[in-house]
Amino acid sequence: MKNLFALSILIFSAFSAIAQQAFIDEFQQKWNNARDYTVEAIELMPEADFDFKPIEGQRSFKEQVIHSCQNMMWLSTSYLGGTKGEVDLKKEVSSKAALIEVVKRCFELSGKTAAALTPAQLEEKVSFFAGPMSKRQIMVLMNDHSTHHRAQMLVYLRLKGLTPPKYRGW
Hints:
The protein is mostly helical. It has helices spanning 2-44, 61-78, 96-115, 119-122, 135-159; strands at 125-126, 133-134.
């Protein structure tokens, strides 16, 4: 009976590790698509309209992009173990090309940080302002936040009479 129980635990642990690795792999696929989708949206907005705000009190198009990058770098360095200081988001991004490079770099660094996590690390709890969260939950939040601000960017494109890039989910 003890051996059967031990074997059951071993099999469950193996399946759990496989599922966690699948989560990491699926996240990478989604994250790379999110990067490309975000870059396509930035490419569509004329640089002259980067300071466009639908109403006072909202972020401009460019501020939406920078805020999204700040969040992914904050989450990946503060909670997932990434390296700080590799992207300077406080300096002025002076051109569309520079903004696109910053976005690509932030996605790359945060994606590499997430990819480096082991299946066991995904379940590690971190102290988060909303309460204890697993690193897996932080990855989900990072993706959700990026999606939220990209959606706002897409609305800004439409308000400027532009057709956003075709949606891609995965």
